[in-house]
Design a protein that fits this description.
globular, 6-stranded mixed beta sheet, 11 helices
């Protein structure tokens, strides 16, 4: 398959490309525009939760003990949300320890081989960058694991997560699994998921890049991109980050 012309991506400073950009473009082009064209970084307590819990797990792998791991996890969270007007800050903070504990029930027998390892590869000539959460090893079994926090255990992995992990599995040339830690009220639960449908995921990712390249080729500047996008006012994202509605009004006027 012919490589894409990178000029359309370079024109809007979208290189190196990433799974996050691809997912945002596929699922919510308006949010993509805000984050990657206007360069407005979105944040919420729920978004920070995963990063902070992951750091707590890293501390445990480093041998710091649960008490210290939760302490560092909480401190990182407090620093991240200190300037956020998010009504769910306290709720998310209270659940951090249970998320960490949930992950550790499944990971405590493993040793860590790497953390936030950078993955670099190309698809249709487009440079892609990503980061795997942890490399772990148990006896002769070694794999990559991506950690996900949630309030509800999924029955299966979403296509979006399958897509992300399929790319990382191919880039790292290693088995990749997803581990969910779920906190519901006062209970935590953790469950492993296998990554499947890798061939289909690669085809989807190529089509996402082709779609974006075609779209960007019709736009000379960010104002032309904006004209082609209309926000859906019923979209849940306006409640996800408390600033989102105000940002939308500043850009689109409603």
């Amino acid at each position: 398959m012919t490589n894409l012309n990178l000029n359309n991506f370079k024109k809007f400073d979208l290189l190196p490309f990433s799974f996050s950009k691809a997912s945002r473009w596929l699922n919510d082009p308006v949010s993509f525009y805000i984050s990657y064209i206007e360069k407005i970084k979105l944040a919420s307590a729920a978004m920070l939760r995963g990063t902070c819990v992951e750091h707590g797990v890293f501390c445990l792998f480093e041998g710091k003990g649960m008490k210290q791991a939760v302490k560092e996890c909480t401190e990182l969270f407090d620093e991240g949300v200190k300037d956020l007007d998010d009504p769910r800050k306290d709720y998310e903070r209270e659940n951090l320890e249970m998320f960490v504990q949930g992950f550790w029930t499944q990971l405590q027998d493993y040793t860590m081989t790497d953390y936030q390892e950078e993955q670099n590869f190309e698809v249709l000539g487009v440079p892609i960058i990503g980061y795997t959460d942890f490399g772990i090893k148990l006896n002769d079994s070694e794999l990559k694991v991506d950690l996900k926090t949630s309030k509800r255990m999924p029955k299966k992995l979403t296509h979006s997560i399958q897509l992300q992990q399929s790319l990382y599995a191919k880039s790292s040339n290693m088995i990749t699994k997803v581990l969910y830690s779920v906190v519901n009220r006062t209970q935590s639960n953790a469950q492993w998921f296998d990554v499947t449908e890798q061939d289909t995921s690669e085809k989807i990712f190529r089509d996402i890049l082709i779609s974006m390249d075609s779209f960007l080729s019709k736009c000379e500047d960010k104002h032309e991109i904006k004209k082609m996008l209309v926000p859906n006012l019923d979209n849940w994202i306006w409640d996800y980050d408390p600033r989102m509605s105000e940002i939308r009004k500043q850009i689109w006027g409603y």
